[in-house]
Amino acid sequence: MLYMAPKWRCLLVVAAAIAAVLSAAGGAGAQETCSGAAPAPPKRGAWMSIASFGGAGDGRTLNTAAFAAAVASIARRRARGGALLYVPPGVWLTGPFSLTSHMTLFLARGAVIRATQDTSSWPLIDPLPSYGRGRELPGKRYISLIHGNGLQDVFITGENGTIDGQGSVWWDMWKKGTLPFTRPHLLELMDSSNAIVSNLVFQDSPFWNIHPVYCSNVVIRNLTILAPHDSPNTDGIDPDSSSNVCIEDCYISTGDDLIAIKSGWDEYGIAYGRPSSDITIRRITGSSPFAGFSVGSETSGGVENVLAEHLNFYSSGFGVHIKTNSGRGGFIRNITVSDVILDNVRYGLRIAGDVGGHPDERYNHNALPIVDSLMIKNVQGQNIKEAGLIKGIPNSAFSRICLSNIKLHGSAPVRPWKCQAVSGGALDVQPSPCTELTSMSGMSFCTNSL
């Protein structure tokens, strides 16, 4: 009988567990899925543990250098099919680190990548060109805890391990007005393609949790994303000027929009000119003081061809919020939101053209957005306070807005719809729709679109 040393038996058990998780992540079962938006990663030709680079998962040792050394080793090694970096159970305190192409970052069950709260040593990077400045403050911005730029074939996954931003120190600076630069995300991928993020917990992000920007072929699924409801701007997932994106099977409870599709800010987004397009979102559950699903308000590069379905939001400010403003320019078009369940939500639906500030005074006041061809259907709500608001822009009215099979109920009578500078149709909507959505042409568009 072949003798195998205990250390190697342990490594084989871990490798087998990883293989099982990766195999499961590659398939989506019998449910309808968009997970084919990014190809499953190839079998990695190398496997290494963060502990092999001097890392210690004791919650006290700072592992920034260990993560940097491990990623650099993967980039140098160029193993066939790339390499997997294994994060064992334990609490791995670290500052920001960057990923490389053709790698898997794998968090074991019980593994926590925890951000240091030493903000003084947090690196700065240039603002995004489509924003022209930091989103919160002029100038540069703090790099995300886990960062990637210009990557291909990146897989961030695990056995429901946790990425913990320890965001309270950042939230306190924001609340006190002492924040020197725009806060960091937990995960930002820039100019990258073929990326998958799955089977993890993200918690207490300093700012937006997951931000794919200028990316294509991205799959985000099977995540839990958590932050207190009073944590400022802790959006869950914000695809930004990105295409062919799949987001599904996530639970999100944060202090801001659970999912917000963006595409740049005013004159900078118009000049950069990269829309967010071909995005599918399904089977999302969660709670927020703001919106469950939103588009905007930064939409200057345009947002089009979006399907969001099978959404379940409770104890939230808005069920669906589509928002833009004069000066944004761009477009929001061909958006379908379907099969939504709402409970204890203030506004069932809000589509508004007067939301969001501007990066500076150089924006073009005459750059008016186009909002056209929005389908909202099969929405059921209870404990709703207000049906909703659809408020276009006087010189750029929102057109072809279709509401179908929407039933919103409350313990008290639900406040009626309010509409302005909008045209479209409404079929089987309770409370009764506003008159702006009862034109013959609008009703014809609705009927033909269903």
UniProtKB/TrEMBL annotation:
Keywords: Glycosidase, Hydrolase, Signal. Residues 1-30 form the signal peptide. GO terms for molecular function: polygalacturonase activity. It holds the Pfam family Glyco_hydro_28. InterPro entries: GH28_Enzymes, Glyco_hydro_28, PbH1, Pectin_lyas_fold, Pectin_lyase_fold/virulence. GO terms for biological process: carbohydrate metabolic process. SMART domains: PbH1. Belongs to the glycosyl hydrolase 28 family. This is Predicted protein. It comes from Hordeum vulgare subsp. vulgare. The lineage of its organism: Eukaryota, Viridiplantae, Streptophyta, Embryophyta, Tracheophyta. The gene is LOC123443896.
